[in-house]
C-alpha cells in the first residue's frame, strides 16, 4: 500500500481576513494582496491541563479565517471539512517535496465564549491513499474589540507530525509556534 507506514509533516497557518472576502469565504482580489494589509494575526495561549487540549487559539466572532496547510511529502486532499462544513481547498503552490492548500472558514455562527469554556474546531481531511485524518483545535471566541483576543502569543504556525498506517492517519505531535 502506497500510504502504509509513512510519516507526514504538516504545517497549519491561520490568518484572519479583515477585508476582501465575500460572505461565502471566497477570496476577492483585495484579499490576494501581497502587502498583508488585508490580514490580521491570530493569537494563542497555553492553558495547561485545565481543558481537553493544552493550547487555545483565539478567534473573533463574525470573522472569516484563512487556513493554509502545507504537506511534506506531497499529499492530495480528497475531501475537507472544518467544523462540519465541507470546504473546497485550493492548491496554492507545489514543488517536488511539498504542496500547500488554502481554505476559508467563518465564525459567524459562533457566540462569545463564556469564561472557563473552550470550543473545538474539528478538522477532517480525507488524504486519499493515506486515509482519513481527524483532529481538533481548541478555540475561544471573542467580540471584535475585546483585548483578550490578542493576549498571549502570536500564532505563526502549528507543526503536526502524523503517521500513516493501516489506512489511517494519526497525529503523533502538535507544536504551536
UniProtKB/TrEMBL annotation:
State whether it acts alone or in a complex, and with which partners, per the record: Interacts with the cannabinoid receptor CNR1 (via C-terminus). Does not interact with cannabinoid receptor CNR2.
GO CC annotations on file: plasma membrane
Per the record, the similarity remark reads: Belongs to the CNRIP family.
Give the lineage. Answer: Eukaryota, Metazoa, Ecdysozoa, Arthropoda, Chelicerata
What species is this protein from?
Answer: Varroa destructor (Honeybee mite)
PANTHER family given in the database record = CB1 CANNABINOID RECEPTOR-INTERACTING PROTEIN 1
Q: What does this protein do?
A: Suppresses cannabinoid receptor CNR1-mediated tonic inhibition of voltage-gated calcium channels.
Name used for this protein in its record: CB1 cannabinoid receptor-interacting protein 1
Show the segment(s) annotated as Disordered. 19-38
InterPro entries referenced in this protein's UniProt entry, alphabetically: CNRIP1
From start to end residue, where is composition biased (Polar residues)? 23-33
GO MF terms held by the record: type 1 cannabinoid receptor binding
